[in-house]
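Changelog note: in this version the structure field was regenerated for every chain. One regenerated record is shown below for reference.
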Amino acid sequence: MAVLEGKIAVVTGASTGIGFATARAFRDAGATVFVTGRRKHVLDAAVAELGDRVTGVVCDVSVRSELDAFYGTVRDRAGRIDVLVANAGVGATAPFGEVTEELIDSLFATNVKGTIFTLQQALPLLSDNASVILTGSTASSRPNPGLEVYGASKAAIRNLARGWAHSARAHGFRVNVVSPGGTRTEGLLELLTPEALEQTEASVPLGRLAEPEEIAALTTFLASDASSYVNGAEFHADGGYAQV
């Protein structure tokens, strides 16, 4: 069903994983989609697979000038944004006692600063009643050992949404958070050892990891007019991992 027919959507960090699945779901729902990624060859391959209604621009969301250039492309080609998904993020593990400044700077530059400027730089383009969706994580409330700093960066995302929800009236948008649990993506498979991955699956009440398409389905609902009165909320798609 084309629940996003005629809408202009932006998805950051959409070369692979949840972002790619979200861009594909938005395309299938009728939207025209603009996506970003940091690796040109991976982004080009994603756009080639997604087709003509998807435009890709190489962009590191932690760099304001690159975000400005990206939004310049959106402005020139579409003139507005109806749906904004601030999905770009990085993950890294480090045992407590071995956390480095470089790890902290990398995680917070992309996950927190990047999310802030992804929305702030988009404000002039947001249409009335635009839907803004931030990608959080169950690590914000239940971080596994080694993921404390990553979890802290995602806890910041939840708090940003709480604050920004009060701006909905003034700026004309609504903002919500989708917090996935363990999801079968390239990033997670690279981050965790096979043993840790098996333990993660065993700890989920549903007994498995999520597929990226399952997260994208929830994000599509929040992007659609069916969620028009939802604002400031967090939705967990984690198989019950952080809920029970």
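Spot check on this record: The chain has a mean pLDDT of 95. The first strand starts at residue 8 and ends at 11.
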